[in-house]
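Researcher: Structure for this, please.
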Amino acid sequence: MIEEKHSKRFKEYLELRYSPSTVRQYLWAFNSFNTELRTQAQLNTFIIEKMRKRNDNPFYSGFLKSYIDCFQLDLGIPKSKKKNKRIPKEHKFLTKEQIDTIIAGTSPYISLMVRLYFETGLRLRELLNARIEDIDVLGRSIRGVGKNNTPFDVKFSTETGKVLDSFLQDVREASPDMEYPFHFSYFNPLCNAKDPAGRFHYYLHKECLAAGVNGVHAHRLRHALGHHLRADKGFDLKQIQKKLRHAMLETTSIYTEATQKEVDDKIDQEVFT
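Model: Predicted structure, token format:
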């Protein structure tokens, strides 16, 4: 049976990312199955009972992707044998101007975290779970082990280094034994220390929304870096792949997409002048 705490966590996750209508529908799907989807066998049963009998309704696929992401499960959704024509997804990247707006308009903690996510390209838990001993302020780097147990050593700017140094000094004074300085429970003892990622996402979204930028989460900051390097700095795909530590160049290819606004702006600046 699904425990109430899991239902509450899933609801909070959905409310940060989807419309009220989608939240209601995904919660209905969540509660209707009446069993936790913790194993691949349970997920496969769900697919047989819900998706295959309904002609692979994409609603359930969307629900499962949200469920797997929310609970950080190592499960896969088997692909349908039907070959449906897919419409290419249009990625909407945060601009450098929006990043600067967030940095200037949020609390010191959220502002620092946005700086670090944008400059390093780290994934959510790679930065959030960074240990204090792995942060080198003078060398402007953060070390750790990321996806697929691959070590990383990423750089950040001198200006961010100054902000980070001040932050770490405050952490050491308040809690000399703090191992994970970015865990949000340090800033608010009432937060759920068992789920620092969930609490961070909540406050990141809330403060960015108040600053005028909607739909922000840690991975969008990573995407914003890739887009900035391509569109504004002229990095090639191989360089961006190296920075973001993508295993395949195909993953990096999303940054080759140009939006209609980018094309119009370039024409205005370079052709109609």
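Researcher: Any notable elements?
Model: The first helix runs from residue 4 to 15. Residues 96-261 form a domain with the hpI Integrase; Chain A fold (CATH 1.10.443.10).
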